[in-house]
Amino acid sequence: MRTIKPTPQVLLRRIERSDALPPPHFRYSPAVQVGSDVYVSGLVGLDPATGGLAAETAAGQTRQIFRNIQALCAEQGWSLERVVVARVYCAGEGAADGMNEVWSEFFTQLAPPARTFTVVKSLPLGAAVEIEFQLSI
């Protein structure tokens, strides 16, 4: 009897280009699609028009992060309903209140995704909040 070896599934990795997001300050892909999963790199509250932080407060930066992920979703034909996981990083305990306040605003009508929350000493570019998203499209 002959044994047939299964062929491994080849997952195509596609880099999503975006005009909706501010250009990266460092070398990384803002979004990568593998099969039906999309991984969005950590977003800080950058204003796409200026490339700088949109606000000084954690709440203001979180609001900009959500504007940016909404713009990316609209550009790519996705929606926030497709976000299944969010990983939140706050620079210090004080940033958590502002981030949670804005988080609740964006998920009043939508079921919130699974979430990991981590307090860190500092974030890139002096940001108060960074959020990484995973979508299933």
TrEMBL record:
Enzyme superclass (EC): oxidoreductase
Claim: Oxidoreductase is one of the keywords in the record: yes
Pfam families (UniProt xref): Ribonuc_L-PSP
Claim: DNA repair is one of the keywords in the record: no
Keywords: Oxidoreductase
EC number(s) reported in the record: 1.-.-.-
GO cellular component: cytosol
Similarity annotation: Belongs to the RutC family.
Name of the featured protein: Aminoacrylate peracid reductase RutC
Organism: Achromobacter insolitus
Annotated gene: rutC_4
